[in-house]
Amino acid sequence: MAPISFDIFGYIYEARQAHGLRAQDYTRYRRFCATHLRTVRKAGGLSQGTAAGFRKRQVDGEVANSGEHVEIQLLLAERAWAYAMDLREQYSRTEEPRQLQHVVRRLRAGSKAAHQLARIAPGFCDVRTGLAAAAYWLQLQSQLRFEQQEWEAALDSAALARVIVGQLAQGSSQQYALSHAMLEALDPVVRLAAYRTRMPGAQQAQPATIATQWYETSMQGGGDRVSTTIPEYRAIVAALDSLSEAGDAVFANELGWRGGKVTFASPQLAALASSAQTQLAAALDNNNSGMNAAVAGFRKVEKAAQRCYAESAAAALKTQSAASDALTSAYLAVRLYSVCALNAMAVGKRAGEAQRIARACGVEASAAADASVGRLVGQWGIAAAGRPQAAELTKLVVCYDQIRARLATLRAIVGETHSKLSTAASREVRAPQLGDEVAAAEAYYACVRGYYSAMLHAAHARHRDALALLDATAGESARRARELVAELATRGQSRAEALAPADRLWAQWLGVSADDVARIAAAAEAAMPVVRGLCAGAGGAAGAWIGDPSRPPAMVANPLAAATAKAGGASAPARVPWLVDFDAELQP
User: What is d(CA 413, CA 11) in angstroms, rounded to the nearest whole number?
Assistant: First the structure.
């Protein structure tokens, strides 16, 4: 017969929430357990008597072979546990010693039923179900030892239960949420037991950290001592080892990004992220060859992270536990990681295309006296021979417009995601600084776009428009970019920059320095005297403006209108064209 699988944590959580424990009504839950236990016994052929008499029938290894037998033991344990919790509440009001003794007796009965399930489950259930039964028994055992003031034994049981749950919960957001929601009831037990055993740092550490430290320092090397408090300790450790060797679970799935670490529960997502990072590293090492494979890999990561986020958010809403909320933020951070990588690759593709066009046309930004705009106007002027060059410049400007649109969208995504991240997750990935980095890159590419847009206007003899665009680039646009870069510099780096492929890609295309902004501003300033001279001797502003062929240009005020008139040239237009303002379009 094939081993059966039974979701112990899910069954217990659903029963507790549906039958009284949502309102902390232990009496109602105990009555449900007693009534449902009779129903399940009857369905499984294990009724303990009729009107003629009573005959006790236990579930042991000889008869246990179905899910009903697991359910019977769970209901027995839950009935005793609910009675103990009800008595515990009464004791907190009356402090009657006999009630405390009754609490211990009921917890002992519940622990006995759960222990019986943990012993027989490996015989007819799969490994995961057997380990879940052991974790449930250890949870009740920890509470029992705590009431008996056996602090080391209580800490042993709680720590081992957390280790088991930490391995079983991998891969399922709902399983992670349900199991950790149940284990959070042991947090006071772990804290006080650690304090009573004089464990170093117990007062400041979190319960999960205390349990992990206790397991590693006091249990792994002390099997003989632990076996006296947990008889099945060696068998449980062997089952954990077999589960790990089979590749059915992973202790931790981590993603290193921006110098921090994001830990989550899905090994499938971890495998996709690792594969995408490998593909991206290979593409970066081979001069961007094979970048399409990296894009496809990160799209898979984004979809998987979004799916895991939706599942964990639903589980967190259901369980209302801190562990579930942390897992939800972790998946959200992984999704942000994939989105940032995809957008960085898109920006790199467009920026690389723009750089190739600029090199082919010989119009790279330069701060020399013979600036690129001046060379362009001198070579082409308004002659028909300038049309092919103007067409290439149009492609160049459109590339930078697409970059700006991409960055504006990314900035909105980063801001929205940051508002949903937990404080710990936001600190790990430096989410506030991430948004500022995108804004600085957006401002820098706006400067570059303004510079080449001026070239495009000059190629069509729109010299005054070119001068206005150069002035805006060297003035307002460069000033904003410098302010954003300076603000980032004052924050400094909280940790050393990581060398992960996604971090390298981000630094290459979105990492803006003050020198980058200074170079493009100097190039615009160097071109302005040449274009100003052309404006002074030019005629009327005739001819159609040629820019983005798919959109009419937006018009902006010309700050140089008065200055050009004073120089003795023809009066400059009060308003000049500016390519599509993506920022305005993306406002909600």
Answer: 38
Note the pLDDT tens digit of each residue in 121-156. Answer: 998 998 889 999 999 999 999 999 999 999 999 999
Q: Any idea which residue has 């919790």 for tokens?
A: 85
Collapse the DSSP code of 575 into the 3-class scheme (helix H, G, I; strand E, B; otherwise coil) and give the result: strand
Is pTM beyond 0.70 here?
no
What DSSP assignment string belongs to 271-283? HHHHHHHHHHHHH
Q: What are phi and psi of 361, to 5 degrees?
A: -90, -10
Q: Contact 568/387 with Cβ under 8 angstroms?
A: no
d(CA 323, CA 360): 56
CB contact at 8 A, 389 and 376:
yes
CA 288 – CA 277 distance, rounded (Å):
14
Distance CA 447, CA 179 (A): 53
Phi/psi of residue 263, nearest 5 degrees: -105, 135
In DSSP notation, 277-305 reads HHHHHHHHHTTTTTHHHHHHHHHHHHHHH
Judge whether 151 and 286 are in contact, CB under 8 Å: no
DSSP alpha helix (H) spans, 20-66:
26-43
Q: Which residues are CB-contacts of 569 (< 8 A; sequence separation ≥ 6)?
A: 535, 536, 537, 538
Cβ-count burial of 100 within 10 angstroms (0-12 exposed, 13-18 middle, 19+ buried)? Answer: middle
Residue with tokens 């002027």: 381
Query: What is the C-alpha separation between 329 and 164, in angstroms, rounded?
Result: 23
- pLDDT tens by residue, 422-433: 888 898 889 889
Give the C-alpha distances (Å, rounded to integers) separating 433 from 111, 437, 485: 51, 6, 11
Over range 263-284, report the average pLDDT. 87
Query: CA separation (Å) from 253 to 267, 274, 581?
Result: 6, 10, 42
> What value, to the nearest 5°, has the Cα angle with vertex 578 and ends 479 and 516?
35
